[in-house]
Amino acid sequence: MPLNADGPSAGLERRVAAILDARLQRDADHPVAIALSGGGDSVALLGMVTDWARIARRRVLAITVDHGLNPDSASWNRLCEAEARRLGADWVLRRWEGDKPSTGLPAGARRARHALIADAARDAGARVVLFGHTADDVVEGDWMRERGSTLGRLREWSPSPAWPEGRGLMLLRPMLSERREALRDYLRARGAGWIDDPGNARFERGRARQALASLIADALEAVWGDGSYRSEASLSAPRLADCSALRASSPLPLGEGFEGGDDLSATILCAAGHDRLPRSDRLDALLDRLARSHPFTATLAGARIEATGHRLLILREAGEFRRRPPVPLPLTPDRPAVWDGRYEITTSEPGWSVVPALGRLAALSDADRAVAALSPAAARGALPVLIRDGDPRPVLAWRNARVLALAPRRLKLAQWAFSGETTQERDLVSPVHGETLPPDLF
Questions:
Q1: In a designed cystine with 94, which of 89, 107, 116, 358 is the match (CB 3.0 to 4.6 A)?
Q2: How far is CA 427 from each of CA 152, 187, 207, 436, rounded to the nearest angstrom?
Q3: Backbone phi, then psi, for 296, in 5-degree steps?
Q4: Rg (CA), the chain
Q5: Helix and strand totals (H; E) in the chain
Q6: What is the pTM of this model?
């Protein structure tokens, strides 16, 4: 069904289409991915996205995740597939398999869902995944965070939180200014159905909805009355200083100061190579120390922080490899593998495995030690080296493999989210300084 120019949902459709036009490409070969749970928000988004895609000449891939937590999930999957096919979208199902956590199930399910969606999107060549979050979700999230939840803030344009599965992917939430009930009205006008998962009521999100039921209109007016979300902090993104490509994924030199903890958290995650946010109390303590402008060295969430008054370095804490020695990562020829969440490494030769340079620097060749010396001393042990049976000497990974440093692009995408810059899907393929090593170094 095309966009309805005169119906009661016309304003909603035009607003969403305008956001899609501002962020997404037209006439591109790769698909636009959308997370389709079968709930009213995602079904409404699917309808509007497929309407837009017909005009923009884009393929749409709907991705459904079966968490294996509800006996009705098989019928829900069939409904999702049927709706996607009816609207002309491709559809894929991913399952959350294996044991489920005994505590923190919603957070575990959310983490698994993002990872599975990211895997499916990357497999299909998509660069952007759309989610159907609404203004109601924003207010409910605030309510939950005020009561101790670690749920992240929702932004219209942000990197995938799944790591390393979501590397290079951006999430687009084009309905953050829309009310949930308005989306139901849109679906009723189109004669479309949706799924209401009764399991939602058992968890914190359900409690938030119940607590806010009589207050939600006033709360939304308070934060969205002028069209902008007033409780969103104005964050200045950390800036990458000019540095060599080898150094860019270990130390991350930043601009002076931080406006809040979110940008510092993101930088720590980029340097440490994982997705586990630092504890808020330790992050606050670190911000306090930075505000004093005194030199110090600290560790937090797998990262090393070196403040020298005028310069701040955040890099991988190499000592983590001594405390928790990693198992060597075998490389399959011509198949990229992510090591330590910081490097994507591909080799065409069989038999190689990746390990940290810690404890092996002295065994490197003179040429490799000279290259490693481009990094600060504290960062060198966290560089990747290759070893293989029968070869006593390790080599820096760059010598025998294609190495893509993941931290620079990850930090760049985080900067886009913090700055509010209107970047677009086409920008995702632009080169980022520090991703690859200049060939003249070898």
A1: 116
A2: 24, 33, 39, 18
A3: -165, 165
A4: 23
A5: 16, 16
A6: 0.84
How is residue 200 annotated by DSSP? G
Instruction: Residue 186: name the closest of 401, 420, 8 by CA.
Output: 8
**How many angstroms separate the CA atoms of 379 and 274, rounded?**
17
Using DSSP's 3-state secondary structure scheme, residue 186 falls into helix
> Residue 300 pairs with which residues in a beta bridge?
303
Distance CA 3, CA 184 (A): 16
Amino acid identity for residue 314 in this structure: I
Measured distance CA(51)–CA(1) in Å, rounded: 7
The token duo for 242 is 């000019």
Q: Give the tens place of pLDDT for each residue, 1-59.
A: 444 555 557 899 999 999 999 999 999 999 999 999 999 999 999 999 999 999 999 99
In 3-state terms, the chain is what percent helix, strand and coil (to 5)?
Answer: 40, 15, 45
Strand partners, 305: 298, 314
Q: Mean pLDDT, to the nearest integer, of 406-423?
A: 88
